[in-house]
Amino acid sequence: MTPEPTAAPLVEIRSLSKSFGARQVLRGISLDIAGGEFLTILGESGSGKTTLLRLIAGFEQPESGEIRMGGERLDTQPPYRRRVNTVFQSYALFPHLSVFENIAYGLRVQHAPKEEIPGRVNAALAMVEMTDYAHTPPTKLSGGQQQRVALARALVNRPQLLLLDEPLSALDANLRRAMQIELKALQREVGITFLFVTHDQEEAMALSDRIALLRAGALEQVASPREIYSRPATSYTAQFIGQTNLLEAEVRGGKARAGTLEWAANGTEGKATFSLRPEQIGLADPALPTVGDNTRFRGRIRNQTFGGATDLLEVSCHDGRVLKVRIASRGPLEGEREFEFRAAEAVRVRATED
Amino acid sequence: MYTRGYKLAVSVPPLLWVTLFLLIPYAMLFCYSFWAVAPGGATIVHSWNLGNYGELLHNPMYLGVLFRSMRIAGTVTLLALLLGYPLAYYLSFRAARRKDLFYQLVIIPLWVSYLVRGYAWKTILGSDGVLNGFLQFLHVTRHPVEFFLYSPFAVVITLTHIYTPFTFLPIYASLEHVPRNLVEASQDLGASPIKTFWRVIFPLSLPGVLAGATFAFVLTLGDFLAPLLVGGPSGIMISNIVVSLFGAAFNWPLGAAISLSMLLLVVGLLFLVERVEKRLSFS
Amino acid sequence: MSDQATPFHRSRALGVYAMLVYAFLYLPIIVLVVYSFNGEGVGGFPPRGLTLGWYRTLLSDAAIWGTVLNSLLVAAAAVCIALGLGLPAALALDRASFPGKAVFRRLVLLPLILPGVITGLSLLMLFVSGGMKLSLLTITLGHGTALISVATTELFAGLQKLDRAQEEASLDLGANHWTTFRRVTLPNLRVSLVAAGLLIFTLSMDEIAVSFFLIGRENTLPLEIWSRLRRGITPEINAISTVILVFSIGLIVVWYHLRTRSLKTEEGAGALLPSTLEGERA
Known about the structure:
The structure holds three protein chains of three kinds. Chain A has eight helices and 20 strands. Chain A is an alpha+beta fold. In chain A, the strands form four sheets. Chain A has a six-stranded mixed β-sheet with strand order 6-7-8-3-9-10, with helices on both faces. Chain A has a five-stranded antiparallel β-sheet with strand order 13-12-11-14-20. By secondary structure, chain C is mostly helical. Chain C is built from twelve helices and no strands. Chain C is globular and about 70 Å long. At the B-C interface, helix 1, helix 3, helix 4, helix 5 and helix 6 of B face helix 1, helix 3, helix 4, helix 5 and helix 6 of C.
């Protein structure tokens, strides 16, 4: 359910900055979050993603800039007055309360009508399939179970915005994949805006309506998963999300030249960096002619890593450049082969200065 | 992983010592409490009877002192908690950078000699002491106020002073153990700081509160120095009676009976507290 | 509300209250120190006639220094006894299981919370029945017994923080238990041992309740001060108290830094001083 671009955004973040001592963690971030969308803040550790989340939740104060939700200032409100709830990375369940009371906590504390509470709590329990554990102490639950309770505890309050701070990072791979699917379905069902933080780009791509890639406190690119993958804006984005080959080329007269590689390219002349995904390069049949804007080159297969459905080849070109090529798995390959790719797949990116 | 020899080597020496210097003496206490003093008052007769316990329970003087001791112990415990808890909370949740320094500042009085501190209160509370001098200096009073010293009041003040650090320590420890993300979670769910305190922080700090209260109550109950220093005749506590029974009043059996009763009271209280704690760990 | 500069208003009252508590805790100490310089004696207000006279009297008071020496000897011996037995006791509680262990644990920790009167009295009975004359030795035995609890609690906490894998590695590499203890366990416990030793030393120097019953012809420092108090108050007592105070502060600062240094390798602060119930639960 991709949100309508014309609707007013639910959350507006303007020029948000935050430092801890001498270290500047967020540099003037501006971002809109649409109502009902699943937005992921993606970044390495130290990129500032958790800080951004904590600023929205209210556990930190911004240095400058502001946050608005539904048109009203949010950052001047203490956390207990914001219609925002958080699912913590460590779950933060109250050990002295049962699962039921944990979930009921927000309702009790905000003086929800007493008659309503059991109904709402039980509905939340059913939603995360933890009904049988209503009276268990949280310390006796597994990680995955605690995570569900944390989710229910947050959602039962019907917040306008749900913040999730790497909630799946402590789970093992299979459980994690299962939870990802459940989480996505849940969000679609309740329609609440989810702001999800993770460092795992595969997770981001699987779950999000949009991804906001954060690097060193600034937004590198904000786009849907497909767009951010196929049209990365910078070399950092191209490398962080999925795998890629970065080609330093010279563009002149409608062509880009990088060593012995040459392909059709338009745009400003001069030096440029191009991103070419390994799966966009395929084995060429020397017997057939080149079609369309395909470019061919020869290379020697240095290494072949079996990956189940695909093989990842390391191919050495004549100018010494090594390219990554991903093809459907077909048994061991050797020696020199001819490869080809479509010129349009070589995406021009901004080089990221370090 | 640990061989039998290892386990024997580490358990036997302390066991032997503890048996010789703790178990046997308690056993002797037990025996003495059932014996009596010979009519002449000079020797102890080993005739087994419950006379001492009867004396303890029926003699209004002993009962009176016992109840006074419990009242004083209860008051001191309450005051020490009222002083120690906010202090511990402040250090744990508000002090941030200066936490270490503040912590050391709490411990330092603990290590100043008890006697010295009691003596200091004596000089403060006396009729020509610092407090009276100060009040007269400010013309608040014209004559020295007598009841400051040599009264249960003085005992309570002195013992509160002594035992506030004792309540502070375990409360501080348990507050430090409260995961800070629980505080954030509580506020995230809509609870103001005060609600967060009463619903999350305080319940989780109860084990520390119990430990501190137990310490303060038991140690105050058995205290004999403060009454001697600042209590006067109206501030006598149960341990003073025991001390005199072993001294000038020479009645070891009765003193033993009282001591054993105190011992049983302490052990009983510890059991009770332990059970309460177990129930508290998940309500 | 939303245009307040700091919307998350934190009450100042708590900070003020905390400072008042500190004032209460330090009032007698300050009075003590100030009046040790008071020319006119121990009472009255304000103090007049600042003088170092009482310290001079103190310096030439041979009797007091004799008892200081006694106390030092007793404290040193008590440290040896308490650590010497507290370490095996802590090891036993940490690693061995035997019938009656729960009783043993409670028994060892009992003197921590039991009023000193009872410990002192019961030991008195023991010595008298055994025909032993009361002396510094009996006091030493009393201190040692009472302070084993402190040693055990501190060392037990130190053992819990020990990485068991290190000992396993040592055994795996061929060292027997005694060697492992000497080369791995003990060095790791060094900080705990020193910290416990300091604590026991200080507690022994100040011990009155147990000593009261076990005293022979020689006094310890606290008991000497006590008997002088009965005779009458002079600021000389303030002077010696101030000296004790300064000394104790020094020891405590050292103890604290040792303790926190060993804790900095862990994240979060656990109990920085023993709590009987925590120790019992462990």
